[in-house]
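MODEL INPUT / OUTPUT PAIR
PAIR INDEX: 1
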Amino acid sequence: MAGEILRSGLGSVTHIGRREVRFAPPPAPADMTGLRTPDDVFVVAARIPDIGRGKDALGALRALASGPGCAAALRARAAYGGPERAHGVEVSASFTGKRNFSRYDVEDEVGAALSAALGLPYHSRRQGEPPPPGYSGWRVTLDGETAALMARIAERPLHRRAYKREGVPGTLHPPVAAAMVHLAAPTDGELVVDPFCGAGTLAAEAARPGVRVRGYDLDPRALAAARANTAGMPSVRLERADAARLPLADGSADVVLANPPWGEQVAARGRVAARPGAWWAELRRVLRGRAVVLLPDPAELRTAIGHGLVPVHLRHVSLSGIHPHIAVLGPGRPALRPRHRAGRGA
């Protein structure tokens, strides 16, 4: 996230936490809604000390909505690419540690205060019903030290991509796919290949003018979902093929993006099911540039190295309770194994 913010010229990074990046935006208005790697982006309206564990302290959260920061946050979100008007407010909350209250208690306390401060109706999430169209989204976090109130800039969370019409098991989270594309950095004229395209998330994130994207999968349902999700993206072509036998010439792929089936949510098919290492050999055959691969365990890099791939970057990510790694690899020479002569003593 921080890298994308800096590369996009959207501000200077002031803090990098476990699940958030804070940044100071430039003085001039700038569209923040085009960011791809964050789950969401907010304007901070107010901060106060964390209220602690007790339910009787919930009323202190009303102070978050009592100052001018909330109206200023609504004005700022329009300057940063969000809607110019709000027809109401809805609040989502999260906190760390054990508390004697629920997130719905936090949401309703702050939502009522926001409603009074802004003169807008409040929609409670307690019953699980979605808010009416045009309601502004607000976020409350309590991290043990600080309670913060933030206004969502976009009309909906950034990770909810408009192209995402269909899904299949194992579908990649769009911001993670976007991060993989940023690490690969495809340029005009390059060929990007996804040998396990699934629902087409990596292909959709990689699609841009001048870049050719090819996605392959053996599952007809996955290909149908991918075609629905990449409709209207002329640079993307999809085809049924085995990841261990791609219809590509040697050294023809400038970029390979891959989220292989590691058997947790999606079972391997075809030649990869029979011989799991086969796709690494095929990756090395078609690759002439760089590969970005999502790995559940970095120990899998031993197999990649054995097939002539060189890791140049490794990054840990947190994803729905699991902690995979994103590896960037380039083509190299196959690893040499020492040979032992019979009859020689140690």
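PAIR INDEX: 2
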Amino acid sequence: MKDRILMELKENMNKFVSGEKLSVELGISRTAIWKHINELRKEGYEILSSSKKGYKLCSVPDIINLYEISHGLGTQTIGSDIKYFDVIDSTNNYAKKIAQEGCKEGTVVVADTQTLGRGRLGRSWDSPGGKGIWLSVVLRPEMPPYDAQIITLAASVAVVLAIKNTTGIEAQIKWPNDILLGGKKVCGILTEMNSEMDRINYLVLGIGININQQKEDFPEELWDTATSISLYANENNLPMTTLRRSDIIKNMLRELEIIYKKVCTGKTVDILEQWKRYSAVLDRKIRVIYKNSEIIGVAREVTKDARLVVDCDDGVTREIISGEVSVRGLDGSIALLNKTNNK
């Protein structure tokens, strides 16, 4: 009922809607209307009230909730079912639980705060309330497990397009799963899979995007390697309207649906071409770290099965598989420098 009141107020933005009208249309008392209005105010919606005119929604701040994410989403599969939490340990953990229980493909788990957010290679991911987008998507692709890496690349493209569509900022992709702004990490993607020898039972795509953090919100040791969309815009004097996380989420889910259809119909070449367009890796000198060893070379290509082809300094061309592998710039940072055009 609260969502229906919010919808009515949003459709009449900056106009008064009488309490009596709401009461009649929704079939509840005016006292009940008043209680729901107060709940919306507690969530952050700026609503004016007048004993004679009713209620007026004046502004919608950066709020994520089920209504803000689902209203106007317009997708068929991705986001057809959305589970929202104010606080959760890990959206990936919950997504894996409900995937195991049989939830439908495209179910999205979103939280304002994660207490045990995780990144790739077992690293923790700081996920404070009001600062970012922390979500997971359950997928059930009909493909063998060894082809699943293309889904991570596809998700990277969806994130880059969503950021560009909503902010005008063009990010880059660092193989296999990081999104960069100005050479600093703004988003990480964690893909976890439950499979058998020849089939995937389910795949959980975890996406974390830093949106509103300022420099002091990051540990000092991450100042040179981490950023947020807001911080990047401020540091580069970019004009920026109010960032609404719900707008970015909806845009990302729409882009993910489009590119996931390409995955499911075998249009791998299209996905790789999009990925290459935003790559921060190709034709750059990089250091590939695997456990206690490393190789240095120039990243040349990404194969159809999402392997990174590196012309190594020892004269050997190697295909790198993501997993326990980190790719860094020569100075040890995540920024990938020293671009070369020597093939």
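PAIR 2 NOTE: The two ends are 62 Å apart (CA to CA).
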